[in-house]
Amino acid sequence: MSSHPVLAVLDDLARVIGATPPEQDTAPTPCAGLDVVSLRRHLLGGIGYFTVVLADPGGDARPDPRNYTGPDDTGVLVAAIGELSGAVRAALADGIETASVRVPALGGTFRGDYVLSMLVAEAVVHGWDIARATGQAWDPDPAASEQAHTLLADQIKPEYRGEGMPFAPEVPVSVDATALDRLLGFAGRSPEWTPAPATERG
């Protein structure tokens, strides 16, 4: 079985989620319009979706990743991440990287290595969102950030950005920015984002 960068990123994501206390659930995140608990629910929907996809690459049964209705506490998400990591390992052992995988929520059928890159992008960017919102460290392997950036550059077209669109405008970063900061800027985040003090949030 081959290894894959997504496994380390998922481990990091589980660590950050598990270290988030309930009193930070209402903290704003860099993901526009979502506080910590809302972003956790978003992650639960996506993680559940990809767990099913990887367990049954050619199948028709797919949950709606945008309509997660279960519990959303940190323990549930940490457990879901663990389940997804197990599905990734099993899929790698079965040769998922060269298989065809149906991902209708993202528009069709893709090679397995491309689907795993989708997971890397989701985990790296949203892991940073949660970590930055809750004052935690987030330092993924630069290769994972590069992989995520390549994936998003293929997916995010200019017409998908702006008000009412799925993605915010790209944020310029310095020419010597790290791989993570370049990824964040492309994903519409300012690497310098910090949460406003609670007194300023009303």
UniProtKB/TrEMBL annotation:
Cited NCBIfam families: maleylpyruvate isomerase family mycothiol-dependent enzyme, TIGR03086 family metal-binding protein
Residue ranges annotated for the Mycothiol-dependent maleylpyruvate isomerase metal-binding domain, each copy included: 8-131
Name assigned to this protein: TIGR03086 family metal-binding protein
Classification via SUPFAM superfamilies: DinB/YfiT-like putative metalloenzymes
Organism annotation: Nocardiopsis mangrovi
